[in-house]
Automatic annotation (TrEMBL):
InterPro entries, per database record: SAM-dependent_MTases_sf, UbiE/COQ5_MeTrFase, UbiE/COQ5_MeTrFase_CS
EC code: 2.1.1.163
Keyword ATP-binding: no
Name listed for the protein in its UniProt record: Demethylmenaquinone methyltransferase
MF terms (GO), sorted A to Z: demethylmenaquinone methyltransferase activity
One BP term from GO: menaquinone biosynthetic process
Length: 233
């Protein structure tokens, strides 16, 4: 079984996601207790995709988030580092001409400057070995006036919620994934990476440093997840 560690070696991360690709969406729905669809809806609304726009969905996995964005008539480039995820996504969305799958490294995107009306990533920035470098790449490929939207696990601000959440990650989730996932060890990394991820204000600071303006965030599900956004001047 492959699992990544907090060094986030790209090949190791890709191999881990290759192994869990087939049942990835089902496991996520189970672990989020149904909240995954609500988080996706909030992210899609924040991106506000419009017909004719070109949108980059990074760490798109099997394309579930991309399909939600493409429903508007936008052309969505679903980029992911994992060949296994892309294979599952291409098979699942072969009928959708508005979704284009591309294997890509978030820190070295194979796209031209100012190419996309919006760039978004859901639950993927945390898995990038150099997240600040990835944000610089997001900025580079965003059109002037374009937007970035990041949905990521975060730090609940209320002490009781935070303690309960980390107790769930450490004790309940490992038992659940042993029943639901083809690679339960991969989800040990999930808990570790969430615990090590910086707080919402820190990520907002990273977005500003990358060059984005109008940076803001709002908490979802009591801060278990946060939705960040910014605009390229």
């Amino acid at each position: 079984m492959n699992r990544a560690d907090l060094n986030k070696r790209p090949a190791q991360v890709a191999a881990m996601f290759d192994e869990v690709a087939a049942h990835y969406d089902r496991t996520n729905a189970l672990l989020s207790v149904g909240n995954a669809s609500l988080w996706r809806l909030a992210t899609t609304k924040a991106v506000n995709p419009q017909a004719g726009e070109r949108i980059l969905d990074i760490a798109a996995g099997t394309g579930t988030s991309s399909a939600a964005l493409a429903h508007s008539g936008a052309h969505v480039v679903a980029a992911d580092f994992s060949a296994g995820m892309i294979e599952v996504g291409q098979a699942r969305h072969a009928h959708n001409a508005n979704i284009e799958f591309v294997q890509a490294d978030a820190t070295a995107l194979p796209f031209t400057d100012n190419e996309f009306d919006a760039v978004t990533i859901s639950f993927g920035l945390r898995n990038v070995v150099e997240p600040k470098k990835a944000l610089a790449e997001f900025y580079r490929v965003t059109k002037p006036g374009g937007r970035v939207v990041i949905c990521e696990f975060s730090t609940p601000p209320l002490t009781l919620v935070r303690q309960s959440y980390f107790a769930y990650l450490n004790h309940v989730m490992p038992r659940v994934v042993r029943l639901a996932s083809s690679n339960a060890e991969a989800y040990d990394y999930l808990g570790e990476s969430i615990a090590a991820w910086p707080t919402q204000p820190v990520l907002s600071g990273w977005l500003r440093s990358a060059g984005y303006s109008q940076v803001a965030y709002r908490n979802l599900t009591l801060g278990i997840v946060a939705l960040h956004r910014g605009t390229k001047p």
